Amino acid sequence: MVDSLAIRNVAVFNTKGGEGKTTTAHALAEGLQRSGLQVLAVDMDPQANLTTRWDIENPEVTLFEVVQHQNVTFGNAIIELPGGVRLIPSASRVNGLSAALYGQPGAERWLRRQLASLPPSVADVVVIDLPPGRDMCGALGIAAAQLILAPTEPCPMGKMGLDQLFPTLGEAMQDNPGLLLWVVPVRIDRRTRLIPAMLRDYRKALAGRISAVDIPVAIALKEADGERLPIYDYAPRSKAAEAYEAMTAEVLGILLTGRLPGDTAAKAEA
Ligand SMILES: Nc1ncnc2c1ncn2[C@@H]1O[C@H](COP(=O)(O)OP(=O)(O)OP(=O)(O)O)[C@@H](O)[C@H]1O
Ligand SMILES: [Mg+2]
């Protein structure tokens, strides 16, 4: 049993594509579900990678139908997956959410309102997978989130992505002031010199906002994706599974306390 959480809504986001957002969202959702929480995963990416990661193809109801049809509720979009996670699936038509919500007052807060209206028994925690870039689907997820996890590869191109992330979130925080950001280093390849050296620089520059866990570059993650299995089932003793378990435990700590692990000043005040 897990005590009640200070934070319920987590979004996985980076403006840069292909960093490992969906892989991280999937591992976090499965990991939190295995910790005894009821997880609702929300795929906000019209690429629908999180949806296919759970082997769901051509879902009948997505958030697009919820916005378009008055008789389709947010709850109607939820799929119960065999492992216990609940999923709001995506499909390419979710691209149309932006046009469908256009002109509605507080459109960017639509997902936040929908999640707030869910009965508590539906989800202890919500894990939202966002698309890369800065579109409406991403904005909906950021506005709904209390915590952003940003998987980031410490490499020159990854750094450009991270440099864009802070201004993007800075804007979002004007409407969502309590939003926390937690950077998760991913694709760490210790055979190279560059990536571990950049990771050391990141840990200095982002002290208090970066995870102590780093997710290794791992073929097992790609294979687990191909087999449509959680990494914990596909390769339970792999370094990647262990790292994602450690990341899940760390994130659970943030969800329970509502504070980042390095936030010692806030802890001392509490
Ligand atoms: N740590 C890792 N080691 C090796 N491969 C990985 C790792 N993390 C992710 N991958 C692989 O990299 C590819 C992209 O990962 P993923 O889909 O999670 O990225 P993304 O950030 O969600 O991409 P997008 O921006 O398109 O949504 C996938 O094939 C995935 O299996
Ligand atoms: Mg993705």
- What's the mean pLDDT score? 94
CATH architecture: 3-Layer(aba) Sandwich
The value of Rg in angstroms is: 18 Å
Oligomer: single chain
The CATH superfamily bears the name: P-loop containing nucleotide triphosphate hydrolases
Strand count: 7
**Rough outline:** globular
The number of helices is 12
Number of domains: 1
Low-confidence segments, ≥5 residues, pLDDT <50? Answer: none
Strand count, sense and closure of the main sheet? 7 strands, mixed
Bound molecules: adenosine-5'-triphosphate, magnesium ion
Which structural class best describes the helix and strand composition? alpha/beta
**Strand residues, percent:** 5-15%
The CATH class designation is: Alpha Beta
Strand order of the largest sheet: 3-4-2-5-1-6-7
N-to-C CA distance:
24 Å
**Helical proportion?**
40-55%
Fold-level CATH name? Rossmann fold
Q: Note the run of SSEs as H and E.
A: EHEHHEEHHEHEHEHHHHH
What features would you describe in this structure?
With 270 residues, this protein is α/β, with parallel strands linked by helices. 42% of the residues lie in helices and 11% in strands. It is globular. The chain has a seven-stranded mixed beta sheet, sandwiched between helices. The protein is built from twelve helices and seven strands. The protein has a single domain, classed as Rossmann fold, CATH 3.40.50.300.
Key phrases:
270 residues, alpha/beta, Rossmann fold, 7 strands, globular, binds adenosine-5'-triphosphate, binds magnesium ion
Can you describe this structure in just a few lines?
With 270 residues, this protein is α/β, with parallel strands linked by helices. Bound molecules: adenosine-5'-triphosphate and magnesium ion.
